[in-house]
Design goal:
The chain has 212 residues and is an all-alpha fold. It has helices at 24-30, 42-49, 53-69, 75-90, 101-119, 131-147, 152-172, 183-191; strands spanning 13-15, 20-22. It is built from eight helices and two strands. The longest helix is centred in the last third of the chain and has 21 residues, at 152-172. Residues 194-212 have low confidence and may be disordered.
């Protein structure tokens, strides 16, 4: 039997998330990136308990890059970053094409301009430069607006700072090695720990990064 994902490798592992058998290579490289693995997956648990050397090196590189993204953030900016990054990881484009870094950069730039303008007392929604970026921004903005209720101008300024940092990360993808069109999105998928039961903007909890 061949792998249900790549169609090439031998399907030796029963994937509880996909409910299909997949090959070891797809299981190892796509877990928590393309595959939303349940917490009780035996392969996921084993990999976390005994990660190979290459995975440890990747985790360290990811952590270093992630820490650069949140460098010098205050507590509120760190929480906004976690909220925004979690949205990116979970976002499903309506056109069913994979979300790419350019879409994230365009959406973040448009929203940052909108929040910067609002912080100056002017209400104007800046459009994204691309259609895909515009769709992402339209889906992203209500979450940030809801999180900022009562925060006023300070929240708007902090949100703009975070979005500019995300824009820069998506555009430049520094430290990501052989950067493909989804390098930044995949980085976030590896380092942001999902918690479906958590408050989207907890009162005093910094971003939770997967530390090797």
């Amino acid at each position: 039997m061949t792998c249900a994902l790549c169609g090439q490798g031998r399907a030796r592992r029963a994937c509880p998330a996909l409910r299909h058998d997949i090959c070891a290579a797809c299981c190892g490289t796509k877990r928590l990136v393309e595959i939303q693995c349940p917490a009780d997956c035996g392969y996921l648990s084993a990999a976390r308990e005994h990660p190979p050397a290459a995975a440890i090196r990747q985790q360290r590189r990811d952590l270093g890059t992630a820490m650069q993204l949140v460098r010098d953030f205050n507590q509120r900016q760190s929480r906004i970053f976690f909220l925004a990054a979690t949205f990116i990881v979970q976002y499903q484009p309506p056109e069913l094409h994979p979300l790419v870094d350019d879409d994230v950069a365009e959406a973040a730039a448009a929203l940052a301009s909108t929040f910067e303008t609002s912080a100056r007392g002017v209400i104007y929604e800046h459009p994204a430069a691309t259609a895909a970026g515009g769709r992402l921004a339209a889906a992203w903005r209500p979450l940030l607006t809801e999180a900022g209720k009562g925060g006023g101008t300070p929240f708007e300024r902090d949100t703009a700072v975070v979005l500019r940092r995300i824009e820069a990360g998506a555009r430049h993808r520094q430290g990501l090695g052989d950067a493909g069109p989804r390098a930044f999105v995949e980085l976030l998928g590896r380092v942001i720990r999902r918690d479906d039961d958590a408050d989207p903007l907890p009162p005093a909890e910094p971003p939770r990064l997967i530390v090797p």
